[in-house]
Amino acid sequence: MQRFILILSLFISLCSCGFSELFSTVGVDPPPAWECKGTLKIHPQMLQLRIDLIYSSLFFGSVYHSDSSHLCYADYEYKFVSKNTTEKIHKNSTLYNILDSDKHVRFSLFDKNNVEKSYDIDLSEILHSYTFKGDSVEIKMPENGTTEISIACPYCSTHRIYDSLCQGIFACNYQSTEQKSVIVGTDSSWGKSYGFKLYLANQSSMKTDSIFIYGDITFR
Questions:
Q1: Beta bridge partners of 89
Q2: Is the pTM of this model over 0.90?
Q3: First-to-last CA distance in the chain?
Q4: How many angstroms separate the CA atoms of 213 and 57, rounded?
Q5: pLDDT above 60: residue 56
Q6: What is the pLDDT of residues 83-138, one digit of tens each?
Q7: Is the pLDDT reported for residue 11 higher than 80?
Q8: What's the CA gap between 67 and 4, in Å, rounded?
Q9: What pairs with residue 217 in β-bridges?
Q10: Between 14 and 71, where is the model more confident?
Q11: Secondary structure element (H or E) that encloses residue 194, with its range
Q12: Mean of the pLDDT values across residues 186-199?
């Protein structure tokens, strides 16, 4: 039976980098930090989340929301409901044990008006993205979203500085915008695992949030 170990971090954010990138993605300049104040209690125009499946944790990050009261908000408050958990969450809250047995992350957020925003994040495709084919492995890019696959490869061990495929490191980097699957080797010159970054736009039942999934899958 093939053994694979998943080390996965899933960032629901526009770049998992910072507040300014979040605003630039939605086409506005970020406000000064001092202008962010108050606690938002209705659903935002965009929400940043992070899921780390090493610890099966869900981290609540920043929001983008601008209205007549504030240009941006320093905090928010919603009721989180999943199969096993119901509790109030704020910015920087962390919840655990969020992955279902079928490799989905499912939960809902309710605002002060009891309006529900639900999530059903299907991780099964990326978790089962590789297939052994003789002395090679085919890694399929998920159909939804934009994916980058990175794996240590013999070519980049000598061309890492000069080739865009290598991006200055010892790993080959493949983009789903250019190909739907990649074939990699299984000998010692290739890595035993591959990293991935998966971006999903317009997530949640309201189609408002963006999801970044980061991880590393060991396939041999």
A1: 78
A2: no
A3: 11
A4: 13
A5: yes
A6: 989 999 999 999 999 989 999 999 999 999 999 999 999 988 888 899 999 999 99
A7: no
A8: 47
A9: 6, 194
A10: 71
A11: strand 193-203
A12: 90
151-172: buried (b, 16+ CB within 10 Å) or exposed (e) per residue? Answer: bbbeebeeebeeeeebeeebbb
**Of 211, 103, 214, the residue nearest 150 (C-alpha):** 214
- Among the listed residues 196, 198, 199, the one whose alpha carbon sits nearest the alpha carbon of residue 215: 196
For residues 178-190, give the mean pLDDT.
92
